[in-house]
Design the sequence.
């Protein structure tokens, strides 16, 4: 008994030192988020919420527009569809969207090209709110498939049309209660089984669900989707997405090694600047700092929401640097410097070139949207990748 009591007493200082330090790291990250117009920070460890804070008028029950964070639902849907034989990632889109069959470039585009944003389709089509799928299918191509990375929404609009046509075939030949579009399929095969509910999902006037930036979710619901990824496609006793398929989401392409199938592979670049940030960090990222981080090596899923129209420059490096602690101040200073440079670039400063921070090793030059010039994007990619030509940005600027 005496030995047990002594052992228990000896353990108390360790707890006193460990738990507050862990809590402080959460608070430091949440404080930074709040300074940058953050609305929510939720941290889940091994499936349990260990920190949750709301700020700037937000609360746990409010569904937040996650903008391009929506994109990361699409590959899970595709993998589930592949598992049940509805499609194959490497099949040609033209096998389903047959009007592409005679186009020398479009006939070579695969579903994988759509999900990795390497289809070569222009992201500057004649945007139509009445039928976003039709306008994307009709968009011209700017490059051969697999040769160029282009961030934008048209890839997923084409994927949405492909899913609609495949599901229509199933509806006609198999089940009268089969899902009729991609969103219905996503709910049935992915979201309902994991208990993830969305508050709203935008559609165009033709009722096509917006797979690129249409979802509104609470932090507590989005973290459930992160758990599915963390647990290799499993939720409880159910294998929702085959684990041997899931890894494909986190393999970059030759044209952009930091982007998988609608997931940003940000860990490598962040780790080089701050060794405390795990290399295996991946993220679903949306405009104005909507973030879902999944970190398998630490059994962590982190949700961060930001206020729409914020111009305060949220940074992955600064946020995760503060969360993990070591090197946080240095990382934060570098992020602040980059934010200042970015502002100078937008203002057309002639002194920007002298102030530029050298790119991290492994940086890659890619074109984002349909800008006539290229932007150097570091492999950790602090931004969500949308260009001014992307309708996501255009919609955000509407009054």
Sequence:
């Amino acid at each position: 008994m005496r030995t047990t009591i002594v052992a228990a007493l000896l353990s108390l200082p360790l707890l006193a030192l460990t738990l507050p330090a862990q809590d402080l790291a959460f608070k430091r990250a949440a404080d930074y988020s709040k300074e940058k117009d953050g609305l929510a920070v939720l941290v889940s460890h091994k499936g349990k919420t260990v920190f949750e804070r709301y700020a700037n008028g937000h609360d746990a029950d409010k569904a937040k527009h996650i903008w391009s964070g929506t994109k990361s639902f699409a590959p899970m849907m595709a993998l589930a569809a592949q598992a049940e034989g509805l499609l194959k990632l490497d099949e040609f889109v033209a096998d389903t969207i047959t009007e592409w069959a005679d186009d020398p470039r479009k006939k070579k585009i695969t579903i994988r090209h759509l999900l990795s944003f390497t289809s070569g389709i222009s992201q500057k089509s004649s945007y139509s709110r009445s039928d976003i799928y039709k306008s994307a299918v009709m968009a011209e191509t700017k490059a051969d498939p697999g040769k160029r990375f282009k961030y934008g929404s048209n890839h997923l609009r084409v994927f949405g049309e492909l899913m609609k046509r495949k599901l229509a075939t199933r509806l006609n030949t198999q089940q009268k209660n089969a899902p009729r579009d991609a969103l219905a399929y996503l709910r049935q095969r992915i979201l309902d089984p994991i208990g993830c509910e969305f508050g709203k999902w935008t559609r165009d006037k033709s009722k096509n669900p917006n797979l690129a930036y249409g979802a509104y979710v609470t932090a507590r619901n989005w973290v459930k989707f992160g758990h599915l990824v963390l647990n290799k496609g499993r939720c409880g006793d159910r294998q929702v997405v085959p684990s041997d398929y899931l890894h494909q989401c986190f393999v970059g392409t030759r044209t952009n090694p930091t982007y998988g199938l609608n997931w940003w592979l940000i860990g490598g670049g962040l780790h080089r600047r701050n060794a405390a940030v795990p290399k295996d960090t991946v993220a679903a990222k949306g405009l104005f700092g909507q973030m879902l981080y999944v970190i398998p090596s630490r059994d962590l899923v982190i949700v961060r929401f930001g206020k729409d129209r914020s111009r305060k420059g949220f940074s992955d490096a600064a946020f995760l640097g503060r969360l993990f602690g070591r090197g946080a101040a240095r990382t934060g200073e570098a992020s602040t410097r980059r934010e200042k440079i970015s502002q100078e670039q937008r203002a057309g400063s002639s002194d920007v070139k002298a102030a530029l921070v050298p790119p991290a090793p492994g940086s890659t030059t890619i074109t984002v949207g349909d800008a006539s010039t290229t932007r150097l994007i570091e492999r950790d990619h602090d931004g969500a990748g949308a260009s001014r030509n992307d309708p996501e940005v255009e919609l955000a600027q509407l009054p």
Observations:
- The first helix runs from residue 2 to 35.
- Residues 231 and 340 are 39 Å apart (CA to CA).
- Residues 1-24, 327-334, 340-399 have pLDDT under 50 and may be disordered.
- The domain at 20-396 is CATH 3.40.710.10 (Beta-lactamase).
